[in-house]
Model the fold of this input.
Amino acid sequence: MSGYVRAQAVTLFEVHTRVLIDLSSRRLILLENGRPVLRAPVAVGAPSTPTPRGRFFVVERIRVTDLGGPYGAAALALSAFSKKLVYWPEGGPVAIHGTNDPGSIGRAVSHGCVRLGARSLQRLFSRVELGTPVEIVS
Done:
């Protein structure tokens, strides 16, 4: 399938941030203008529902109203999808989000999403724009 978008319907802008997630060390690094400004431990996908590897980007910034819920205060939806969660709505979208289980940070326990502690999520969310590249490596 192919398609097109009229040039006048598109707005271009520069993004100066990039997110790197290392699954083996379970760490997230936020880079601004190529320099690390945040390093944080994360929870990643369990062996049965691994976090997908590859190059993705932020497609949506979501503020969550239920701060005690499973996603924390916010989520950054990615262009990534889990091949294991075909029965989930929209085919298993992957996001970076908070958690109501801080003990999960540093472990491989999620359904494929990347979980951050509350303070790290707040710092990340305040700096990451739509279109920010996210690279997930092992």
